[in-house]
Amino acid sequence: MKSQTEYLLLDEAAALLKVSTDNLLLQATEGFLQAYWLLNKTLQSDMLEQVPAGVFPAYPGQDIEEWSSNLIEVASTKHFTFIPLDRDKAGELLTKSTTECQISRIRTPEGIYSLAEPNVITITRQHVAIMRNGREAQRKQTPDNDYESELLRLVNRASKEFWSTADRDDKSTYPKNSDIATWLMEQDFTKTLADKAATIIRPEWAPKGRRPEE
After folding, report:
1. DSSP string of 127-145?
2. In the 8-state DSSP scheme, what is residue 33?
3. Backbone torsions φ then ψ of 12, nearest 5 degrees
4. What is the Cα–Cα distance from 185 to 179, expressed in whole angstroms?
5. Which of 117, 120, 143, 139 is nearest to 130 (CA)?
6. What is the pLDDT of residues 18-68, one digit of tens each?
7. Which member of 3, 30, 42, 139 has the greatest number of CB atoms within 10 A?
8. For the whole model, what pTM was predicted?
9. Domain-by-domain residue ranges, the chain?
10. pLDDT value at position 129?
11. Contact assessment for residue 63 and residue 13, using Cβ atoms and an 8 Å cutoff
């Protein structure tokens, strides 16, 4: 029976491609493919949910994003999800047995969870996977897209990571431009460039601004 698994663990992917796990980690370090790490842990978190429709603004100067979303407290939640592995972390796993990843927010198909406090997770190669549809090394070991700048690759990555799971019919799944810009600034974008990039990658079907009256 054909496997329906979306992700392949590192050892399985290496065996399928007939390369070493070091080779896959090297490709991830150089940005030729995106690696992920598996979070399988109970964490204390809040879920970002859309509040009921109301009058905007509720008070003078209220921000549209503040009005349209709200953190709803939930109990400790079991999270089972794959999170993108940064290139520098993939590089650490080339030479070390473990690396540490800090997370403060989790995006899942069910929604966005804001952790009560940042968590530092220790991961090993056994936590690492690549997506099945990317197992053919999307950018190839000798890339034919070396004309692309690193900034462009990061913008494309942000587009995929923040918008690929959004449901166009459910605004509560839309990421905030400010969250995307924050992520880009963590990748050494300037604030001005990050803000512009977050606006550029916003799909046409996800207009920003006041919701139409029903």
Report:
1. GEEEEGGGTTTTT-SS-S-
2. S
3. -65, -40
4. 10
5. 139
6. 889 998 999 888 888 889 999 888 888 777 654 445 555 555 666 655 555
7. 139
8. 0.53
9. 7-145, 148-209
10. 93
11. no
